[in-house]
Fold this sequence. Notes:
The complex is a heterodimer. By secondary structure, chain A is an alpha/beta fold.
Amino acid sequence: MNSGYDVSLIEKDHDRCLELSDKMDCLIVEGAGTSPRALVQAGIADATMVLAVTSMDEVNIMVCGIAAQFGVETRIARIRSSEFTSNNAPISLEKLGVTKVIDPEHIMVRVINQIARIPKAMEVFSYHGGKILIARHIMTEGMPLLGKSLNDILQMAGNDQFLAVALKHVDGPVRIPIGRDILEVGDDVTTLFPSNYLHQYLELLGLDNQRISKAIVAGNGLTAIQLCEEMATWIESVTLIDWDDKHAQQAAERLNNVEVILGDPTERDILNEVNASAADLFVGAGRDTSHNIMSTLLAKSEGTERTIAISYEPKSNNLFRKIGVDHVLSPRRALAQEILDIIHRGRSSVELQLRDLDLESVELMAQAGSKITKAPLAKAWTQFKGRAIVGAVIRDGKAFIPRGDTQIQAADELVVIIKPKHINKIQSLFK
Amino acid sequence: MHFKAVFYSIGRLLQLLSMILLIPMGISVYDAIMLHSARPFQTSESLAFLVALLISALLGTLISILFREARNQQGVKEGFAIVTLGWITMTLIGAIPFMVWFIEQRSALAIGDILVAFTDAFFEIMSGFTTTGSTILTDIEVVPRGLLFWRSLTHWLGGMGIITLALAIFPAMGVGGYQMFRGEVPGPSADRLSPRLRQTSIILWGVYLMMSIAETILLRLGGMSLFDSICHTFGTMATGGFSTRNASVGAYNSAYIDWVIIVFMFLAGTNFLIHYRVLFKRDWFAIKENREFHFYSATIVIATIVIALLLFAGGLPDAAESAAHFTAIPAETGVFAEHVAAEGAKVSTFNGALRYSAFQVVAIVTTTGFGTADFDIWPRAIGLILVILMFWGGCAGSTGGGMKMIRVMVTMKAGWRELKKITRPRLVAPLKIHCSPLPEHMVSNIIGFSILFIGLFVICSIIMSLFVPDLTSAVTSVAATIGNIGPGLSGIGSTQNFAWIPTPGKWVLILCMLLGRLEIFTVLVLLRPSFWKK
């Protein structure tokens, strides 16, 4: 709604309907998502987009199918079963009317894996389906970068595909760095790079030998299983702790090269049995927030290097971080992000906040005839120098880091790191 | 228990048998006319075939008409009863021609001698149907061609299963036939290839027939006579092992023939589901994903190389040493020394060692039991390896015997899993074969089977040692029959036969063959009293 859409919402439950209509400025229709009456009442005939995000795959596909008959352009379905979404699925979702699939579990799995792949990172963001990464690190003793200027570092790397987009010296303000800045111990540096340069990035930080070799996942849901499945492809030893008897059995049947332990991860005995003290990563991926927080904190106290917890209460995320969980992720927020990403792609902006730094990263598309396309970047950007920085350009699906003489073309997408108060101003460059 | 339904099906089986008996009878009649210039049924064996044919045709027709109304009443129990009793009935009728021939040869007219002749004939035909290949014939080459053909044909029928053949031919037997199918098909699970059982049976027999024709042609091209080619094909494709020569396949002394038979033994020991998917569906994935097939191939390759190296590097033990453990049948020193020298020459080159090792390993693992060399005088360690491989057997869904590779794999994995669980008591670890989990009831079924198989082997070995003084002979005779292989070591080694074993011992081995071929459960289930109660 905040992006300026008119939204109609179909909800089966009467009480929820009443509750929602009080809270939100949108049309709420009571009924089943597959009911043609409800869909028509919600205005499907004029809709440009349908989002089917019930918990049932079949219902979501059906809704997209109906929407296709009404000529709705974008039809997004939430689909959890990999039977539909895998590359060798025997049926085509497109023919059933789905134009785009979203899968909250899958998103969480991707995000957690991204964090896990970058040791010691405080935060990790990705853009454009993971093609561009933004990683935030604190400089510590022994890193090869210390005492070097950003320009030197680029020379060390031998290419210009790394861009420091934010820098904060100890006790200093956050700012957009320049080439002459020299890195010191304790500096908080946020860097943007195309994801295929990840290994080189880790080399620069001297972290390339710190790959995770033992991960523990505690959880009783599909997310935990999918997470283990993905992690087992690149982590030597993956252990799943599951406290539900039947579910643990199912998980063990599905997972290969993953050790499945039946037990409660909030019990020390179990954490000892899986040797949590030697683990590089512990993920609390259950369906209950407090349980996840509890188990991650326990693992941390046992000696696990890094911890990630899934939280279904985004409002408390900052609290959880304060009491010691390294990364707190919210599926609903990630899902919303993904949906916005689809809706906005090439139109407006996706915003991500860098925690505790007064900066946001925004994805913008250069429209034909806009100011930014008229001169090389260095010239077109003068008025924002020091206030915002273009992190990456995505052209024809490929991401690269622009230089001063890069000429922006129409339909290029730009990842811009910016102080929030300048966001409105900068949009004028792109229109 | 619906006895009528059991009788009806056995009646149909007998009708089928009578039709099949036409073939060996035809050969006997042809030989009577051409070789002995006699009238069609003047020779005793052609007459014996006629008698057997008439008995099975009349009896079969009679009971299948009598119990016609019971034909759709079979359930689980009836299925098992039909399979076990059906196999015994087939063997009884099928033994008639051999019995007549033995009585004639030995001019055995006393009642005791007739009983011995009956035992021998029953042993030989049971060995045929169960694709064991153990023989009581001391001189195979004097046996009339009709009888030799019949002996080999029983292999071929028993290999893919005579009940499976009946299901393919008689549509009416398909009703409730799955129990029978399951009771006869080797392996822990009997897969349907198509929704209809009859179609599945036709596919299996079709693939079997095609491969048999291919092997016959290849053997014929290698210089074997047509008759010998067909008989050896029956022995190979069914993983049986009856030959038409005293020296088995070794008589031809041809590397080409050896390799053709090695390849077809290997194929016969493979799951026929794979053959079907590769030949008809061009589905090469079937080979890639089947872990049992990989295990089977790896076992054969590793055992072949190890044994070839042992043979090539170490050579054979000298004659005096070998003669020392021949307690059962002492050979004349001079003849024996010559035999050892000849066998030693075969494996003196690496190619030779590889060829004879490959043949013997494949013959044992697939439970065929053909021979090209006397592995009894090979180093004892090799003998032991081969005896252990006898237990493993071919793949599930093949014509091979033994415990089956899949059961060996699952039993090993289950053992390994328990070992892991000692340090991780809360580990949840379903047993997996190629990433797909095996249900626990299947795992316990397989472990139960393995225990019964080994248990029966132990019990029967003890019983056999009462009748047979030489322990090696006693133990390996049971291993060779319960695994449907054929030859064992020492007194029943590859150049020996089972003729000298006392009659009660032969009956123990006959039981072992049937238990092995029908995979224990099908037979043992009939021995529980509750099975026969209403």
